[in-house]
């Protein structure tokens, strides 16, 4: 079990002085979100932390998003990128993941 993050802050169980816990699959989804959201090369202790998704041009980035996402997630065991789609209306990137035979999705707002 791991502590749940919401908008970068730990989530506290209402009415208690304890942090909310999440299971293993949700922990991997949370870690994937952090890795995909972070800009690669900006984290001083580890220049390989994060993704290069933000370096894409606005032209036709969809063919590179899956590769950049998989590169960012390569150290997470059992996490694979199934597909990535850019929402034409909002510009959000929807990355579909396969985590130990369970499907999940990470949404990155632009």
Structural account:
The protein is an alpha+beta fold. Helix content is 23%, strand content 27%. β5 (79-86) and β6 (93-99) form a beta hairpin. The longest helix is centred in the first third of the chain and has 14 residues, at 24-37. The chain is globular, with a radius of gyration of 15 Å. The mean pLDDT is 87.
Q: How many strand segments?
A: 7
Distance between the termini: 30 Å
The major sheet is characterized as: 3 strands, antiparallel
Unreliable segments of 5+ consecutive residues: none
Which strand-content bin applies to the residues?
A: 25-35%
What is the compact description of this entry?
The chain is 23% helix and 27% strand. By secondary structure, the chain is of the alpha+beta class.
Structural key phrases:
110 residues, alpha+beta, 23% helix
């Amino acid at each position: 079990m791991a502590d749940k993050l919401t908008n970068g802050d730990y989530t506290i169980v209402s009415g208690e002085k304890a942090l909310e816990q999440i299971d293993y699959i949700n922990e991997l989804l949370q870690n994937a979100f952090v890795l995909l959201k972070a800009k690669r090369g900006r984290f001083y202790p580890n220049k390989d932390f994060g993704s290069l998704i933000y370096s894409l041009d606005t032209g036709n980035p969809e063919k590179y998003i899956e590769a950049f996402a998989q590169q960012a997630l390569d150290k997470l065991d059992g996490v694979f990128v199934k597909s990535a789609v850019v929402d034409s209306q909002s510009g959000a990137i929807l990355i579909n993941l396969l985590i130990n035979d369970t499907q999940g999705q990470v949404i990155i707002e632009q």
